[in-house]
Amino acid sequence: MRILLYTGKGGVGKTTVAAATGLALARKGLRTLVMSVDAAHSLADSFDLPVLLTDKSRGAVVPVAENLWIQEVDVTEEELGRLHGPIGLYIGSRTPPEIAISILAEVTAVKNGVALPDAAKIAGAKERMAPSAACS
Questions:
Q1: By the number of CB atoms within 10 A of the CB, which of 13, 85, 90, 112 ranks highest?
Q2: How far apart are CA 12 and CA 10, in angstroms?
Q3: Residue pair 44/58 in contact by the 8 Å Cβ criterion
């Protein structure tokens, strides 16, 4: 399984590019789901489908072509409030394995209800631990 994620400011064409990519992959025979969490729910428009189709099945996966499905997901403010970012406790990680450990540490802390330091303390720690230009 591969996940392609398109991000950017509003109006730059994320939905259009995602829809076109999904269609191209489906035509190559790959089972493809194009998912959107945009509150505007314009994904159906990209496939020239009536918005009513996705309105009736809000959050459900809707088939649009062979090997191609779309899903427009509603994300509530409460659900957004449960997101954490950036993920990973600041432990001075430099290598991919160290970064993986910092991410797993934060996931474990959140799962176990451990209070995490606020962003201001983390930013201060990063500044204090950053190597100076004279040391390089």
A1: 90
A2: 6
A3: no
